[in-house]
Amino acid sequence: MFCVLIFFCFWRPVDTEGMKMSVMEGDSVTLHTDATDIPRKHIRYIQWRFGPEKALVVIQFNKEAPDVNYFNTERFRGRLQIDSQTGSLTIRNSRTTDSGLYQLQMIKYRPFYFNVTVYARLPIPVITRDSSNCSSSSSSSSSSEQNCSLVCSVVNVGHVTLSWYKGNSLLSSISVSDLNISLSLPLEIECLDDSYSCVLNNPISNQTQHLDIAQPRCHTSADSVHCCGFTEAVIRLVISAVVGVATVAVVVYDIRSRRAMN
């Protein structure tokens, strides 16, 4: 019973979430042993593991030189590199398949985990336009408006968000966590101009495609307000003048009619 009490007093749960690290595919990422806050002089033996697999690298620090042995590293194909002074592990030319939980084990110390995510390089989104729906319609202004159906598409992506923007304003978006899928996001617009853009992003990078319109055909809302406001003011002024003249005419006629009767 006494031993059980001692166990629970000194036992602490192991953090298997680990230190989260993100890297772009093709870049290198280093898992540093000093992230454990264990003094270097206390480290005599290190073992690196990846997921549920057996040890990848075993390092025995001797007085002369460290003894480094590699195991089960077929998937990495010579892309692993060990710092002989610290025991830190570097993965070169990273791939999306390198994502996962890496475990650092040292004698007399609890395991330490690194949660690595390798993101694929993002393609540039493609914007297509349905020309059958992009027909100009006549209006009272000198400019014409167009009603269009736009679609932004990407292929072979994962863990990304695809979004439509007008200027800096977000219009719509869609997010996916699956790998190697095709994604498309439609957008219906009434005013065809070059202020629209489609953005593909993940937590560490983004790609943007702007809507390419050679000759924007859209009058701004400010112009419409100005035009309509001026026209409306003139109409109101004319109507007021006509009503005023009619009212004066009625009053004069009424006065003359009464005088004639008297």
Automatic annotation (TrEMBL):
Q: Which PROSITE patterns match?
A: IG_LIKE
Database matches in Gene3D superfamilies: Immunoglobulins
UniProt keyword Transmembrane helix, yes or no: yes
Residues in domain Ig-like?
A: 125-214
Bilayer-spanning residue ranges? 233-253
Annotated signal peptide: 1-16
InterPro entries the UniProt entry points to: Ig-like_dom, Ig-like_dom_sf, Ig-like_fold, Ig_V-set
Keyword annotations of the record: Membrane, Signal, Transmembrane, Transmembrane helix
Identify this protein by name. SLAM family member 9-like
Organism listed in the record: Carassius auratus (Goldfish)
